[in-house]
Amino acid sequence: MVFKAVLITLAVLTAVAIAVAAAAPAGTPWPPQADDLQLDPVALSSAERAQVLGGKIVLRAVADPGRKGRTYEAIGTLPGTLDEVLAVILDYRHYHEFMPRVERIVVTDEGPMVSLVEQHLRLPLGTRRRYRLRYTARRGADGCRVDWVQVPWPEVPASQTVAETSGHWQVAPDACGALLAVYHVYTEPGHVPLGMTGLAMSLSKHDLPKIIEAIRHRLRPAANPPSIRD
Q: What is the domain partition of the chain in residue ranges?
């Protein structure tokens, strides 16, 4: 009887904990704040800084020696507060509504910091790819970072996925007070038919600014008309 009473008590306490978490105020930061979050410095030339503060999005290649794929980053400012931006970035379930090339999303596991997400993409040249990503979100006092890495999805043939992809979002106020977003991504597509890997990579590269534009539009739809998603 004592053992049964203990189990009932634990069940009640667990239910209360779940209810309290679900009833958290809308303004509660998600994920919880991490005091040890270290953000990467963002180096911009004077010309790039002028472009970014003027509303443009800077796209540039990033040296990544020893890796077969290519690394790029898009940098631009975002409207709204840090919590508003983070809420949009973490809204994986609705990526297909506003993110370029995203055709379908399945969230298989979701937590306050780590989520497992299956993405189905419609890419240039009429190809489709799907892969599984593990997102890790961290929020500090002055910024946030969301990293993702590809994780195994054994059921998917190599011809229907990419060899490797990873990257991160980093968002923080810059010295001028603007909310600066960096979208950094590495991609190694693997085999692309007809020897058109270079063309596919080039087209994908030029899609990257549309991702920041999509976040802008999601935050302030009236002030930021959407660009073509595909």
A: 33-219
Going residue by residue through the chain, which has 230 residues, state the pLDDT in tens, using 9 for 90 and above.
433 443 333 333 333 332 333 333 344 456 878 778 989 999 999 999 999 999 999 999 999 888 888 999 999 999 999 999 999 999 999 999 999 999 999 999 998 899 999 999 987 767 889 999 999 999 998 899 999 999 999 999 998 998 999 999 999 998 878 899 999 999 888 766 544 455 455 556 788 999 999 999 999 986 676 665 55
Question: Under DSSP, is residue 80 helix (H, G, I), strand (E, B) or coil?
Answer: coil
The DSSP call for residue 92 is G
Question: Tokens standing for 78?
Answer: 């975002």
Contacts of 48 (CB under 8 A, 6+ apart): 58, 75
Q: Which two tokens stand for residue 14?
A: 């667990």
What DSSP string runs through 144-162?
Answer: EEEEEEEE--TTS-GGGS-
CB atoms within 10 A of CB 64: 12
User: What Cα–Cα distance (Å) separates residue 65 from each residue in 8, 60, 62, 163, 191?
Assistant: 57, 16, 10, 17, 21
> Are the C-beta atoms of residues 136 and 125 closer than 8 Å to each other?
no
Which residue in 203, 194, 218 sits closest to 72, CA to CA? Answer: 203
Q: What architecture is the 33-219 domain classified under in CATH?
A: 2-Layer Sandwich (3.30)
